[in-house]
Amino acid sequence: MRLMAIICEAKRNFENALEHLVLASMAMIASRKESEVASIDVSIGNMYMSLCRFDKSVFSYKHALTMFKSSKGETHPTVASLFVRLAKL
After folding, report:
1. pLDDT > 90? residue 78
2. Tally of structural domains, the chain
3. HSE toward the beta carbon, residue 89, CA cutoff 13 A
4. Domain holding 14: CATH number?
5. Cα–Cα distance for residue pair 48/59, rounded to 1 Å
């Protein structure tokens, strides 16, 4: 599903990419793979940003940020990169 999202994104079909990412997120939630869910949430935020849905993008980034903080710690580079993404919005 993530691969299909990448292909759709490359074709600038952001709506379909978003659909595939949401499905991938649901599959990872069912498998209890929280770090994967956080990574997918970042990608979902990117798709929302590409679609100019900034409020939903912020929500996805904040959700990923919360998950990464608890799993990787507050000083991890991934956490910092999410703060940068949020600042750009």
Report:
1. yes
2. 1
3. 21
4. 1.25.40.10
5. 10
